[in-house]
Each structure stands twice: as structure tokens, then as C-alpha cells.
Amino acid sequence: MRVTIWGARGSIPVSGPEYVRFGGDTTCLEVRDASGEVLLVDAGTGIRRAGDRLDREGIRNIRLLFTHAHWDHILGFPFFRPLYTPGVRIEIHGCADAVISIREILERTMRPPTFPVDLGEVAAELVFPAVCPDRFSVGGVGVGFIPLSHPNGGVGYSFEEAGRRLVFLTDNELGHVHPGGRPAAEYARFAAGADLLLHDAEFTAAEYGERQGWGHSVWEEALALALDAGVGRLGLWHHNMERTDGDLDEIVAACRARVPGTGAALEVFAARQGEEIVLS
Q: Which of 135, 154, 155, 224 gets the highest tally of CB atoms within 10 A of its CB?
């Protein structure tokens, strides 16, 4: 299983010299199985670069999952090049708790006057499965689900192939249980033994006091979850829009300094735009 990080920033895309190493695009994650089947998660601004590469490679069958429909997770969708390529089939799953379907959300996003091309006019074949199953497979990858603790709801995912497992929990507040969300212990059970956990780590403890209930975790909580779950690697995700490369280096260093005292063999890093990770 090959994992590509196309964007890991939260709230709004950012640019500038202080964001060069970890990147400024918002959430988009790519998972490929051993045969090359492609699955994307979320359509933040990172999906633009993902789409450009898929188009160059001639990929014609794509699955797109959404964790939820907040702006930073959908605003790149109209700029996804495969949408405008004849012969492409895109199967779109939106299993998040929402008052309207993901299809209607995307239609509204691409409806004039906010965007000049209507969703019904794109060249690709779009398929919206009517049923959200408890579990399904994409190629050789088994996909599992858990509700996120986030305003308006959301879905976290697990991806497993050939005994290797990735758990993706963006926009998940471990310090506050939102309607439909789960306590931290349940997320630890969901992530137990994963080779790689990508988890929301938007805030520092100092920032969190006045932001409790916003739907995001402090990095100490993400670290504690990874240790409780016994995962192999923790990738800090949903970087705050103000968080510079240097700030992220400091947070990673603080995490790494705490691990030896736990006796765990946990590797911690900050998700970096453009990074590819092979789980084999």
C-alpha cells in the first residue's frame, strides 16, 4: 500500500517561505493498492496536484471518499483535472453525518455564480453510491469507518492491505465528544496496532483553552492516543494555518522527547505535503 500526502493543512490553504517544507494545501490523501487502484480521501486544495498526476498517468478509475464537507475538505474539488477528462469514472462516497448528501454539497459548490461549470456538465462519469456500508473494499484494500468527534459530524477511515494498516483521523477532537463522536478510548481501539496513524494535532495546549469544541485536538492528545493504540508511526495532521515549518519542528521534537520514557517504539513526524509512504 502506497500513501501520498497531497495536503495536510487545516482551515485554509497558506503560502509563503515559512510553509515551504510541510506545505500549505488543505487535506487530500491518496492510497494505492499493490495493483495500482487509486483511492483519494477528501478534496481540499491538495487534490489539484493529485489530479494532475493521475491525469498524466492516464488513471481512469478513481474512488473519492469524504470525511466531511467543511470548506477546507471540498474547495479543491472543482479544480480536480480528471473531472474534465472523458473516459474517467469517479466513484464518490460521502458517509459523513450531514443534513444533505455529498452529491448535493458538490452540486452547490459548482453552481453559478460561485463556479462557472455545473457539476452536471463535467466530462467524467460520476457515480454516487446510495448506500454507505459498514465496510467495503477498493481493489485489495479493505476500508473501515468510525464517526469523528467534530461539529456537524464526520467519518474517520482505516485502510488495510496484506496485513498493513493505515488509520486516518483528521478533524477529530479527543478532548470533547461532539454529537455522534466517540470517546478517546474508542478511537484507540479503532487504531490499535496500526502501522501508521494520521491524526489531527491542530492545537497546542495553550491555544486549546479558548478553542475547545472547535473540533480539533492538541498534539499531546494525539500522541497519547498513538501510545495507547500501540501504533508504529504517528503523523501529525491538520496543521494550523498559522503553524510555520519551525513551529512544526518544535512540536515533533517535543513528541519525540516524550516517547522514550514510555517504553514504546513509536516514530513521530509531521505530515509533509508531497511525501510518499510505503506500507509493506
A: 154
244: domain CATH number is 3.60.15.10
Number of domains in the chain: 1
Q: Is residue 130 packed enough to be buried (19+ CB in 10 Å), middle (13-18) or exposed (0-12)? A: exposed
Domain residue limits at 224: 2-278
250 contact partners, CB below 8 Å, separation of at least 6? none
Residues 188-198: tens digit of each pLDDT: 999 999 999 99
pLDDT tens sequence across 229-246: 999 999 999 999 999 999
Q: Is the peptide bond before 82 cis (omega within 30 degrees of 0)?
A: no
Task: Answer whether 178's CB lies under 8 Å from 151's CB.
Answer: yes
Please state, as a whole number, how many other Cβ atoms lie within 10 Å of the Cβ of residue 265.
Answer: 10
Question: Is 102:69 a contact under the CB 8 Å cutoff?
Answer: yes
Mention every residue, 6+ apart, whose C-beta is less than 8 A from residue 83: 51, 77, 90, 122, 123, 124
